[in-house]
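Incident log, support desk, overnight shift.

02:14 A customer reports that sequence design results differ from what the structure should imply. Their input is reproduced verbatim below. On-call engineer (initials T.W.) acknowledged and began investigating.
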């Protein structure tokens, strides 16, 4: 598992800027929460689980394909949102707090409804309309104030009311936009139930999630003006969704045991890497000897305890499930990050053999091969890293390790090109251009590497 920030050039949505222009940035709009440098978590095990959850939903909705990504956000809040139309963001908190796969799948079904409905693009249009409403209100208000000023003292009341008149436009625009968004949220809820029915899954998890949110937000909901929030209140969502859910022949369908185990292992992994030591111990008390509990404890030991013991605990996990690539991966990560790259290589090679399409694990294997400092392993490192980057073409760390490997092979052109690609995917365009120009000085003119460097030199900043 790695922690990173989404590059600036892809992190922000245009919506966030549009909403800020209308003064609504503090309304809690889920789709606006994609700021620059969004903290993300990369983990093959959890990403594959989320893709498996999403795939049938996307098929049912007629969306998806290679351009739809599910991204884990390093945030403990229970939230999910879509951005740029094809990116579904799931907070780590939503995974940790979803007690069953069905609960999380319900959340993802709702977000799929936003993607299928084109709600992000339509919300941009609604924001533009709201801006027009606000501007017209301000113009009318200003005209009224000007008229009052020409009438002299007899119109003192108009002058006193001026602030309220001038604010009327933005206030009406805000309510109009929020009303529109509440309608889109309700539409996504109904679409989610349809997708779950189409895939033979229950909407019970959605109902239970909304009911839990209702209980958690009960006090705030009593004080809230329902016309100034961006989502329907949880009680209303339960009232609408529950009858639809219960009418489904799949209402009592349960998650398969293997899916439940994968879900709980993902939650344990997140808890192990994200929670404080005492929180992990509370979540997995000493009497819990389940596989997820042992997984979390191995990571806990790696982070807070005896790292040699953590490696031995990873061996116990491997004995329990020798065909689980992620148990081999965690052993390799423990050894690599405790300064034992040579010892990490067999575990990571085994993980790659069990999950050959896992680009992130290949990058870790390439990292271990480079970190040994053994020149005899550089060719294998380059091979593994290049294979990995075919699967993970935006993985900056893969390019960094490749740059080191090429540098040690005295291939300055490829080293500089790889370093340029790392900088590009980190969002540092100026550094990327400088390295790309330097790479062109060492690469044959017109070669594939030279042309790739030329593309980087000519890259223009992308507007968010």
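02:41 Re-run completed on a clean worker. Output:
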């Amino acid at each position: 598992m790695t922690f990173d920030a989404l590059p600036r050039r892809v992190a922000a949505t245009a919506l966030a800027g549009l909403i800020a222009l209308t003064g609504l940035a503090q309304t809690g709009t889920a789709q606006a929460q994609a700021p620059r440098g969004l903290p993300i978590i990369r983990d093959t095990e959890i990403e594959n689980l989320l893709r498996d959850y999403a795939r049938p939903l996307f098929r049912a909705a007629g969306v998806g394909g290679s351009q739809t990504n599910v991204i884990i956000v390093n945030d403990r809040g229970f939230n999910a949102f879509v951005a740029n139309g094809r990116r579904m963001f799931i907070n780590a908190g939503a995974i940790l707090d979803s007690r069953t796969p069905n609960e999380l799948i319900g959340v993802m079904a709702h977000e799929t409804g936003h993607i299928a409905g084109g709600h992000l693009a339509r919300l941009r249009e609604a924001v533009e309309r709201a801006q027009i409403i606000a501007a017209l209100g301000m113009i009318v208000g200003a005209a009224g104030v000007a008229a009052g000023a020409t009438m002299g003292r007899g119109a003192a009341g108009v002058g006193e009311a001026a602030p309220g008149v001038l604010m009327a436009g933005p206030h009406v625009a805000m309510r109009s936009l929020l009303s529109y968004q509440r309608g889109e949220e309700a539409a996504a809820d109904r679409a989610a139930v349809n997708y779950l029915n189409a895939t033979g899954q229950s909407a019970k998890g959605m109902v239970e999630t909304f009911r839990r949110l209702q209980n958690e937000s009960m006090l705030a909901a009593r004080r809230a003006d329902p016309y100034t929030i961006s989502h329907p209140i949880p009680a209303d969502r339960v009232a609408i969704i529950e009858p639809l859910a219960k009418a489904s022949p799949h209402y009592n369908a349960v998650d398969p045991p293997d899916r439940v185990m994968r879900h709980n292992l993902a939650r344990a992994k997140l808890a192990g890497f994200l929670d404080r030591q005492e929180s992990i111990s509370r979540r997995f008390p000493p009497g819990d000897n389940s596989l997820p509990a042992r997984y979390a404890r191995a990571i806990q030991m790696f982070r807070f305890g005896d790292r040699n013991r953590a490696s031995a605990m990873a061996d116990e996990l491997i004995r329990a499930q020798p065909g689980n690539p992620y148990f081999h991966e965690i052993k390799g990560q423990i050894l690599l990050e405790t300064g034992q790259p040579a010892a990490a290589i067999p575990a990571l090679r085994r993980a790659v053999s069990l999950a050959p399409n896992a680009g992130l694990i290949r990058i870790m294997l390439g990292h271990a091969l480079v970190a040994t400092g053994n020149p005899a392993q550089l060719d294998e490192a380059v091979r593994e890293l290049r294979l990995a980057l075919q699967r993970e073409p935006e993985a900056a760390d893969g390019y960094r390790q490749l740059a080191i490997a090429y540098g040690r092979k005295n291939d300055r052109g490829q080293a500089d090109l790889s370093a340029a690609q790392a900088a590009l995917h980190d969002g540092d365009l100026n550094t990327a251009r400088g390295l790309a120009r330097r790479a062109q000085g060492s690469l044959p003119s017109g070669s594939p590497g030279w042309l790739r460097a030329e593309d980087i030199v000519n890259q223009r900043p992308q507007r968010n």
